[in-house]
Please model this.
Amino acid sequence: MAAYDPDNIFAKILKGEIPCHKLYEDADTLAFLDIIPRTEGHTLVITKESAPDLFGISPQGLGKLMAVVQTLAPKIKTAVGADGVLIQQFNGAAAGQTVFHLHVHILPIKDGVPLRPQETGMAEPDALAMTAEKIRASL
Ligand code: AMP
Model:
């Protein structure tokens, strides 16, 4: 199992040391917009348990995380007018993981609209703020 770095970027978001476009929070999870959205409404749901990946979390914690994904995904889909939802979760650098704090991607997908390439870079903060407001209003 990968080691957990308590100073990873999502741990800093959880501690309030860096900002995020927060959509939802409860005792066990936090959901916020991805700063490099591959689609409109691209959301990350993270656990508050300090786990680097899927293999480091308790079954109970994983259950709570996925229950939040299940609740939020259809609401985010509706809020941005998408037709489907892609759920992604990466484990290990070889699999594409870049932040080693367990998280699940919620990607609303519109018919015929491909994912933006990762190289697109960070979204404008105002655009993210507008999307976050639209989603929060539908939660
Ligand atoms: P992964 O490849 O599953 O580890 O994805 C990590 C995701 O975190 C990427 O999609 C990044 O765009 C996203 N990300 C990195 N830093 C931040 C941040 N400060 N706020 C929001 N999303 C972030």
Summary: Residues 9, 20, 34-36, 44, 90, 96-99 surround adenosine monophosphate (CB under 6 Å). The chain is about 30% helix and 20% strand. The chain has a mean pLDDT of 97.
